[in-house]
């Protein structure tokens, strides 16, 4: 059942054993919130802030369980395995969605729960204007003269990376429990905040969560600009650090890689699994903007692999022999 298989914020744990009375009947109430995504699928948010994708069958089962229908007749009515339904109840219990009848409440969320992002867009352009003015009138150091100064800037740049992920976390924690993850981007280690559960939220909230890291960066950059203005000696480090920030943005905002740019484009286009659909449209030779995206994604992947191989061969001294 999708409720058991498609939890976005982590894989479900093994189902605990159920007693015989629980197998025969279910007479407690449920407490959760549900709504609809742009593609028509259904999301459910439990009291523990767990977010799930479900189908119509699972939602009907939950409604009938909440109405007090026993497990066995329910399995017979919908022709499903009793163990599977027991597992569904186990997940509900673990997520805090099984409560006493007095606390039971199933709430349908509407689009009115979405937010307006215009103030955040205005804030972004305001902070961008401050930084443009800085590079036009104040910035002077575009190249560091000593290697250890570059090392200092590189070490300091770790702080904006952490704050970037903190931005995603702070914007998402109101709606679900985001998880810190570790991955490799073309064999390079990277820390990220898993916000996949945002797909269970309205579009503008998803846009805010996926852009919160850049907004945090913009705020930090503006503070660095203020530091360089009030302490001119700090400009020597501030300008290279800002350039390093923008270089990092050129990677994470590239919609062809699995970064903020990819998720923002997915939100704007209301496209779930954008890369997978793009390659599927390309294989089927279907004329669509996703086909173009799929083609660009394949080309980018090929050139990225070639560039990585070139880098490795030069690193081990083979580049000059080819």
Structural summary, described in words:
- This protein has helices at residues 2-5, 20-24, 56-66, 71-78, 82-94, 118-137, 147-156, 158-172, 203-230, 235-252, 260-269, 274-283, 289-315; strands spanning 29-36, 42-45, 51-54, 98-99, 105-108, 179-185, 188-194.
- 56% of the residues lie in helices and 11% in strands.
- The longest helix is centred in the C-terminal third of the chain and has 28 residues, at 203-230.
- Strands 1, 2, 3, 4 and 5 form a five-stranded mixed sheet that branches. Strands 6-7 form a two-stranded antiparallel ribbon.
- By secondary structure, it is α+β, with helices and mostly antiparallel strands.
- The protein has two domains: 2-109, no CATH class; 113-272, no CATH class.
- Helix 9 (203-230) runs antiparallel to helix 10 (235-252) and helix 9 (203-230) packs across helix 11 (260-269).
For this entry, give a set of tags.
disordered N terminus; elongated; 5-stranded mixed sheet; 322 residues; single chain; 2 domains; two-stranded antiparallel sheet; alpha+beta; 7 strands
Q: Evaluate the radius of gyration.
A: 25 Å
Tell how many strands the DSSP assignment holds.
Answer: 7
Q: Biggest β-sheet, characterized?
A: 5 strands, mixed
Averaging pLDDT over every residue, what do you get? 80
Brief digest:
The chain has 13 helices and seven strands. The protein has helices at 2-5, 20-24, 56-66, 71-78, 82-94, 118-137, 147-156, 158-172, 203-230, 235-252, 260-269, 274-283, 289-315; strands spanning 29-36, 42-45, 51-54, 98-99, 105-108, 179-185, 188-194.
